Amino acid sequence: MTDLLAVRGVTKRFGGVVANHEIFLQVPHGSIVGLIGPNGSGKTTLFNSIVGYHPIDGGSIAFDGREISRLRVPAIARLGLVRTFQQTRVFGKMSCLQNLQVSVPHVHEGLAAMCTRQSPAVTERARKILRMAGLQGHADQRGADLSFGQQKLLEICMALMNEPRLLLLDEPTAGVNPVMIDSLIALLTDINARLGITLLVIEHNMRVMMQLAGHIYCLAHGEVLAQGSPAQITANRAVVEAYLGGQP
Ligand SMILES: Nc1ncnc2c1ncn2[C@@H]1O[C@H](COP(=O)(O)OP(=O)(O)O)[C@@H](O)[C@H]1O
Ligand SMILES: [Mg+2]
Q: What separation in Å is there between the alpha carbon of 172 and the centre of ligand 2?
């Protein structure tokens, strides 16, 4: 089976800082792959490279067999490769439903875009996605009035409006309370199993990783330090030391 995403030898520098050095990573169709590593190890940079946020300095990135490393964010998103951010980004003054409506890709401009966003088809899809996340009762509530965990759920719902084939999630449960973490795990499991969306997830919480990911990559100093099953990764001495060494 071919991989949905294949990162081959990707290098990314910021001035003298080598944020990613010759990274190889594969995400099979339909899988949930985890990405861990201490702060500053290059996880977010790799996401930014994959989605076309910045040009890479070496290597190649293939999505469903197609080279994408020279494409920009909108073109890559149109292929079905979408990410969420480490910092929560919902529109506080808009209702949850409106947050989803404006997340529809920009195929039209101006008035036409407004009409598309408020079309019955888009609205129905938005309501269906809110239901999946258990947010249907909050459709008319302002984004800012949701709890932090609910905002994290809403952000994933917004990403789903793009109809991704591969969703990249940057620390989806960071700062979220344990009850809401279970809701996030349930939503991500559902997205994968019921919608068939492949996931690549950055996550520090190993309890979450153990429940979600079938395979985990660990970065340290911009390089792949180890990869394996969750059990292999938690038992890996180099991984444990990288985390302990990263603490003050
Ligand atoms: N836009 C940028 N400009 C300069 N340096 C950056 C930029 N983005 C990330 N870095 C540097 O790249 C390294 C990796 O950062 P990052 O990818 O954010 O790590 P992580 O997400 O694993 O915490 C860090 O040394 C960071 O300071
Ligand atoms: Mg990061």
A: 11
